[in-house]
Amino acid sequence: MALNKPAIDELLKKKKLQYCSGDISSICVKIVAVADLPTRFGDFQIVAFYNDEEDKDHIALVRGDVSGKNDVPVRLHSECLTGDAIGSLRCDCRDQLTTALEAVGSMDMGIILYLRQEGRGIGLLNKMKAYQLQDMGYDTVEANEALGFRDDERDYAIAAHMIRSLEINSIKLMTNNPRKIDGLEKHGIKVNGRIPLLITPNRHNERYLKTKMAKSGHMLDDLFTRA
């Protein structure tokens, strides 16, 4: 079930006239294109967004008619070239993306925001430098800090604008990361619940996941305590 076309067409016209929403911060975010996107996970519409804050394009994969709805299931997924495209086992990104697509694809409505925030916001080249440090024994947090970054440089202001641009009243966030919830609520998004997204670890990413839990506060206790 794709997003209701009259509704999305109306949003597109509205955002062309109203260049900046201005109700969350000074960032200007608008819908610039919408297209049908049949996938192996179900039928979506892909919504492209422009923002004036950075030279990056972000998209939403929208299932069903979400405009004006409450408690819409939403997954914020940060780009991971090595995981999403190549299938790296050093992280759980590809499995999280696939699991989220399968889940939302089976729902009447839901959204996946695909955000261009490679390497927790440090970029692809710095991510490779962090990998090199991890090969020397650093964990993911230590590697980022050794490069002069925080453990997570991502910001969710643009994601909040994207949700507002789709005129969603409230969401349920598909995440293990409390910072995503806090980041969206900080920018005025009403988060009415959390949907866990637990991926069974492999021998290459178990330390990575345990570091997420121990140092970055990810809610993964059930993953490592369940039989």
SSE class: alpha/beta
CATH topology: Rossmann fold
Q: What does the main sheet amount to?
A: 7 strands, mixed
**Average pLDDT:** 88
What is the CATH class?
A: Alpha Beta
**Uncertain residue segments:** none
**Binned strand content:** 15-25%
* Secondary-structure element string: HEEEEHHEHHHHEHEHH
The number of helical segments is 10
Overall strand count: 7
Helix content: 25-40%
**What is the correct CATH architecture?**
3-Layer(aba) Sandwich
Number of domains: 1
Please tag this protein with its features.
alpha/beta, Rossmann fold, 7-stranded mixed β-sheet, single chain, 227 residues
Characterize the structure shown.
Helix content is 39%, strand content 22%. Strands 1-2-3-5-4-6-7 form a seven-stranded mixed beta sheet, sandwiched between helices. The mean pLDDT is 88. The N and C termini lie far apart (37 Å). The protein has 227 residues and is α/β, with parallel strands linked by helices. The chain has one domain (5-117, 155-201): 3-Layer(aba) Sandwich (Rossmann fold), CATH 3.40.50. The radius of gyration is 18 Å and the shape is globular.
Record the SSE blueprint.
Elements (H helix, E strand, L loop, with lengths): L4 H13 L11 E11 L2 E10 L6 E6 L8 E7 L2 H5 L7 H13 L4 E6 L2 H4 L2 H12 L4 H7 L10 H9 L5 E4 L3 H9 L4 E5 L10 H11 L4 H5 L2
Parallel strand pairs: 4-5, 4-6, 6-7
Antiparallel strand pairs: 1-2, 2-3, 3-5
Helix pairs in contact: 5-6
